Amino acid sequence: MEQTTSNLRNRQRTIAVLYLVMASILWSLGGVMIKGVEGNPLAIAGMRSVFASLLFWAIIRKPKFTWSRDQILCAFAYAATVILFVIANKMTAAANVILLQYTAPIYVALFGFLVLKERTTGLDWITIFIVVAGMALFFADDLDTRGLCGNILSVIDGITYAAVILLMRKQKNEGSLDAILLGNILTAVIGLPFAAQSPPSASTMISLVIMGVFQLGLPYLLFALAIKSVSALDAALIPVIEPVLNPIWVFLLMGEVPGKWALLGGAIVFSAITFRCLYTAVKSKEESIVDYSEK
Predict the structure, then answer these.
(1) Residues 112 and 231: beta-carbon distance below 8 Å
(2) 120 with 252: CB under 8 angstroms?
(3) What distance in Å separates the CA atoms of residue 250 and residue 244, rounded to the nearest whole number?
(4) What is the per-residue burial (b if ≥16 Cβ within 10 Å, else e) of 191-204?
(5) Tens of pLDDT along 89-98?
(6) Which is more confidently placed, 138 or 111?
(7) Structural domain boundaries of the chain?
(8) Which of 176-190, 192-206, 271-285 has the lowest mean pLDDT?
(9) I want to staple 41 with a disulfide (CB 3.0 to 4.6 A). Which of 86, 174, 180, 292 is the partner?
(10) What is the DSSP string of 221-270?
(11) Under 8 Å CB-to-CB from 208, ≥6 apart: which residues?
(12) What gap in Å lies between CA 107 and CA 160, rounded to an integer?
């Protein structure tokens, strides 16, 4: 029985990692799509969350708004994250936004034990260091020191994103989907008045629908499902492959070839995360075998 339970847990974790990878692929479209949509950043964020809310409501059907402290904090942190992401993308280079937002694993590692009692190992810290170094190298040719306000907002965005991860993980058995739905509703309430002042064109509306459903709603749905079976640090580190995918979209859509530093940095990030995932999976399997043999 214990062996079966352990195998089930390992399979669930594998599926969760795949969900996180799929979410990262969809999230990676954000920078390119937001740059291509004209309009007030709050209006874009609000409209995007309207369509994400509709997707979440259709899936949940009967959301449970408990109005607990964790649910409310998660909703506010989520709203802050998605709003700041759009605003920062309009104020500074997309590379800056992504690099600074993905400082989130550092905050998750620092506060994971305090909030969730999940310990950060030496391998975790080494992985974080390699990932941050790889991302800095990855964007070496693209970083823009201008747009100071946008850079500051991106740093704050990394903190709020870490808070979302920790609070979703904390509510893994209580309905983190409900908290994200509430966050999307809050974002829509904040942004819709700005959209009403300057209604989007038909083409812009189509882009907002696609962004709301496929670039925001669906990946956060996958993220919420995944976070039930992985640690908060896993949920913060694995999606770091998102920045690696950005130049691929830029190349496919705009024909811009990534530089050598970008390729090297991307390879470092991808290798570090892949090694950690494989090592963790093998270690979990070995531990389950040892536990079963001892019994």
Answers:
(1) yes
(2) no
(3) 11
(4) bbebbeeeebeeeb
(5) 788 766 677 7
(6) 111
(7) 2-294
(8) 271-285
(9) 86
(10) HHHHHHTTTS-HHHHHHGGGHHHHHHHHHHHHHH-PPPPHHHHHHHHHHH
(11) 37, 44, 47, 48, 51, 200
(12) 10
Express the helix, strand and coil content of the chain in percent, nearest 5 each.
80, 0, 20
- Residue position matching structure tokens 């740093």: 155
C-alpha span between 252 and 65 (Å, rounded): 41
pTM (two decimals): 0.84
Q: How far apart are CA 32 and CA 25, in angstroms?
A: 13
Find tokens 């990878």 and name the residue: 21
Q: What is the largest CA-CA distance in the chain?
A: 68
Residue 200 · residue 39 · CB < 8 Å: yes
- Between CA 96 and CA 92 the distance in angstroms is 7
Q: What is the DSSP string of 74-114?
A: HHHHHHHHHHHHHHHHHHS-HHHHHHHHTTHHHHHHHHHHH
pLDDT class of 182 with cuts at 50, 70, 90: very high
In angstroms, the CA 291 to CA 289 distance is 5
User: Is 128 in contact with 52 (CB distance < 8 Å)?
Assistant: no
Through-space distance between the first and last CA atoms of the chain, rounded to whole angstroms: 11
Burial of 257 (0-12, 13-18, 19+ CB in 10 A): exposed
Contact 179, 171 (CB under 8 A): yes
Other beta carbons within 10 Å of 293: 8
Query: Radius of gyration (Cα) for the chain, nearest Å?
Result: 19
Per the CB < 8 A criterion, the answer to whether 118 and 232 are in contact is yes
Token reading at 59? 């899936």
- What residues contact 283, with CB distance under 8 A and at least 6 apart? none
